[in-house]
Amino acid sequence: MIYLLIGCGILLWFIISFFKEKDKKLLEEIRMNWGRPMEKYRNFQSLEKYSKADDPEPFHTLTFQTLKDIDIENLFSLFDRTATTIGQQLLYNRITFPINNLQKLKERSGQSNYFIENVNKRESVQKILYKQEKNGTSGITQLFSGENSVTGKNKTLYKALTLLAIAGILGSIFYPVLIILFIPIFGANIMIQYVFKYTKEKQYNILSEVYGLIRSAQKLKKIDSIIDSNSIPNEIKSLKGFVNNYKFLNFGTPGDDLTKALFYFLELIKACFLTEIHLLNNSYAQILTERESLKQLYKFIGEYDVAISTASLKSDKRFNTCIPDLTDEKKVLKFTNAIHPFINNCVPNSFSLNDKSAFITGSNMSGKSTFLRTILINSILAQTLFLCFAENYTSSFIKPFSSIKIQDDLLEGSSFFFEEVEIIKQMTEKISSDDNLFVIDEIFKGTNTIERISLAKAVLHFLNKQENMVIASSHDLELIELLSPEFQMFYFTETIKENQLIFDHSIRPGSLKTTNAIKIVEIENFPKEIVDEAYKMTNEYKNRSFGVSLN
Predict the structure, then answer these.
(1) How far apart, in whole angstroms, are the C-alpha atoms of residue 398 and residue 353?
(2) How far apart are CA 392 and CA 379, in angstroms?
(3) What is the pairing mode between strands 332-338 and 349-354?
(4) In CATH, what number is assigned to the domain containing residue 376?
(5) What CA dihedral angle connects 63, 66, 68 and 70, to 10 degrees?
(6) Shortest CA distance to 127 belongs to which of 267, 287, 308?
(7) Are 134 and 292 in contact (CB under 8 A)?
(8) What is the SS3 assignment for 497?
(9) Domain range spanning residue 498?
């Protein structure tokens, strides 16, 4: 007896040591990933699908063009430090739907700060989230819409076969010979159930994910934190029927020979009466009846994951972030030392607009496009994650629209100019609503000079109506005079030293006085005849009027 106890003690010690070592390795992984981007697969098609379905009436939805202009996939990959697919989906939804609720934004910021300050609780939550993801979560959103049955048109047939099997068992009690007649029915039921189980593997997996989700929510509820969990006990209670049903549906994995024998015997009994088919269908019916409770648990777990992901972003030592000052004052945009997060050693820039729009000039490679993306990204983050890559940031609540990264679509047969026209047309249709931010790079560069300047002046003047703000760039210096005084002027420039162009990528207030295109050609050793003629023609054009009235 004593040896048996010693043997059990040693076995128990090995089991405890195994799980402790496993837990230790998980904790090491969590700490290693903290404060840095995570390399992992992201299904952006799935993320977009969930994002569109989650919030039918948002304050603002980023357009396809704006998502392209901020390079959403790379931007999201930089910000996404979530542990679960649930967190990924909620984070993507959050970034693509800016809000104007200051209290909600402060709440989000407080949640992420809480997990920066409370390391032990954060790591306890992360362990639960990591284990949840290993169980799987990607299929749960399919249950947010769908039919209550997975058996389809054969549902009545399955019920009839089950009733026949039951009748056969009951009848054989009084007339044992009947059992022989019902053997084909039992055989058919066994075959049907195993074929069904094979073809419905995806549905079985989804139910396993739902069960794991409920278990994770129960564990997170026990951890005292800043995430609101007041409604969670009721949501879990409403799903209790599914939990009980699922436990009977899933006996787990057999262990030793005795449990294996019992497991396969029960599997055979269930197959004879098509039990799993009915249980699976009932489980789906229960889940879909309580889908709102499931959604709340889903978001509850996602809130933890997004808060911790944002905390990790804030803890990334490569970046300095600030809490934005979002004001009810109209047409305000000010920031100090803002950067674009993609660019290593990015030159910080400061900017200030009050009750005006901005027009930016500068040569190629001077920094105009990067600066416009910097504004766009930070304006979005201010109203989604409530952080900015700057020392300080002040803005009105705005709805960003952009036209920066446009390309010819050869497959669709559309030109660069036509694509830009369509995008800017969409902006003009938003003019009736105030507080839009229109960010446009190199406006109408796909057409001739006279029409480009004429259209640019007309469109920018139109977009600048009411409380809307426009930040646009162009090479066309003629627009400086045409857009004053309703637009504040800014420019990027460069210096030439030892026949080399040096860009400082710093924005300056005022108007650009010099150009460098011919100088670049000269530096690149074009024939002197070309350079001289170009300089001569430039001087001639400067001495002429533009040739048309644009006022």
Answers:
(1) 14
(2) 12
(3) antiparallel
(4) 3.40.50.300
(5) -140
(6) 308
(7) no
(8) strand
(9) 325-515
With 0-12 CB in 10 A as exposed, 13-18 as middle and 19+ as buried, what is 461?
middle
**At what angle are helices 291-314 and 201-221 packed, to 10 degrees?**
60
CA–CA distances in Å: residue 523 to residues 434, 494, 498: 47, 14, 10
Question: For residue 360, what are the β-bridge partners?
Answer: 473, 490
The string over 389-401, giving b where at least 16 C-beta atoms fall within 10 Å of a residue's C-beta and e elsewhere, is: bbeebbbbbbbbb
Structure tokens, 32: 């290693």
Residues 287, 79: Cα–Cα separation, whole Å: 32
Q: How many residues does the chain have?
A: 551
**Is 370 part of any domain?**
yes
Instruction: Report the DSSP pairing between strands 392-396 and 399-403.
Output: unpaired
pLDDT in tens, the chain (551 residues): 675 566 556 655 555 555 556 677 888 888 888 989 988 888 888 888 777 666 557 889 999 999 999 999 999 999 999 999 999 999 999 999 999 999 999 999 999 999 999 999 999 999 999 988 887 777 787 777 655 556 556 677 777 766 666 776 676 677 676 666 667 767 776 777 777 766 777 777 888 888 889 999 999 999 888 888 888 889 988 988 888 888 776 655 444 454 556 555 666 666 666 777 777 777 888 888 888 898 899 999 999 999 999 999 999 999 999 999 999 999 999 999 999 998 888 999 999 999 999 999 987 778 899 999 999 999 999 999 999 999 999 999 999 999 998 764 544 445 778 888 899 999 999 887 778 999 999 888 877 888 888 999 999 999 998 889 999 998 888 888 899 888 999 999 887 777 777 888 899 999 877 677 777 777 777 888 887 788 788 777 666 544 444 43
Number of structural domains, the chain?
A: 1
Whether 466 is in a domain gets the answer yes
Taking residue 156's Cβ as centre, other Cβ atoms within 10 Å add up to: 9
Residue found by looking up tokens 């899933």 in the block: 250
Local structure of residue 414 (DSSP, 8 states): B
Is there a domain that residue 350 lies in?
A: yes
Q: Which of 337, 312, 307 lies closest to 220, judged by CA?
A: 307
Identify the CA nearest to 144 among candidates 237, 53, 218, 208: 53
Cis peptide before 485 (omega within 30 of 0): yes
Helix (H) or strand (E) holding 518, with range, is helix 517-523
CB atoms within 10 A of CB 40: 13
Q: Please state, in angstroms and rounded to a whole number, the distance separating the CA atoms of residues 122 and 115.
A: 5
Which spans in 136-225 are helix H?
A: 155-174, 178-199, 201-221
- Answering whether pTM is above 0.85, one says no
* Strand runs labelled E in 304-369: 325-327, 332-338, 349-354, 357-361
Residue 283: both structure tokens together: 């489980």
Residue 113 inside a domain? The answer is no
